[in-house]
Amino acid sequence: MKNKKVLIVDDNALNRRVFENVIGHNYFFESASDGMEAIEMLKTKKYDIVLMDIQMPRLDGISCLKIIKEEEITNIPIIAISAYSNQGDREYFLSTGFDDFIAKPVKPKDLLETIHFHLQPGLHKPDTSENDSNEEVNLNESVIQQLLKYHNLDNIKSVYHDFLEEAESLTEEIKKLADLKKFEEIGEKLHILKGNSGTLGVIVIHKVTSNFEKKIKQLEHNELYKEIRKLEEGLKTYQKLIENDKIFAKYE
């Protein structure tokens, strides 16, 4: 399958890197940061399948798919990837023309099995509904174990450290936005944090950001800062988990 090529379309750099690390052992890949860039790449290069994020600037995933279909740019499978995850959402995305749907946070196993299914006609569709996360821990190590099947440990360490750096940066941005009472922009930052922490199994961050995002519009000003403090505490917990690569030592 290494002769197959995947186009990853996602506006978030860490999402792209996680996807690249997951699929890089099995497939060639290239990445686009939004729908406009994806269209230009599809017009000039050959790919076998597209992973398409839905929420993107300039041109979102659904609008991008519409242009691809109307202009008959390609007929390869295009997989929608979105935080929307109930059955109604799945049916909606399929009705717009996507060939399949993967819910965020994306599990590495689900991502690979879905790609393999669409590139190997005749296979049974994998069941991606299983929930294997352990909500009682701060980091779901099964995600690390899955990633290690497809990439080396140094790259995986780098992804987890990159996530900490990004999470700290986004938290600082959220604090500044809180002073300005820009709730919609805070919600956008939380959405990024929620998606990336979920994909990497960083439960201590995913739980905080999920709860924070749900009630962002209803929070009073003093409650807003309580939620920010919870996020900062979660970051400290996560930082201790990966400090000096302690959690990775058992995989050396």
Describe the structure in brief.
56% of the residues lie in helices and 10% in strands.
What do you see in this structure?
Keywords: ATP-binding, Cell membrane, Coiled coil, Membrane, Nucleotide-binding, Phosphoprotein, Transmembrane, Transmembrane helix, Two-component regulatory system. InterPro entries: CheY-like_superfamily, HPT_dom_sf, Sig_transdc_His_kin_Hpt_dom, Sig_transdc_resp-reg_receiver. This protein is of the alpha/beta class and 252 residues long. The chain folds into two domains: 126 residues, Rossmann fold; 99 residues, Four Helix Bundle (Hemerythrin (Met), subunit A), CATH 1.20.120. It is 56% helix and 10% strand. The protein contains ten helices and five strands; from the N terminus they run βαβαβαβαβαααααα. The protein has a five-stranded parallel beta sheet with strand order 2-1-3-4-5, sandwiched between helices. Helix 1 links the parallel strand 1 and strand 2. Helix 2 packs parallel to helix 3. It is globular and about 50 Å long.
- What does the overall shape look like? globular
User: Taking strands numbered 1, 2, ... along the chain, how are they ordered across the largest sheet?
Assistant: 2-1-3-4-5
Radius of gyration: 18 Å
Count of discrete domains: 2
Q: Total helix count?
A: 10
Key words describing this protein structure:
single chain, 252 residues, alpha/beta, Rossmann fold, Four Helix Bundle (Hemerythrin (Met), subunit A), 2 domains, 10 helices
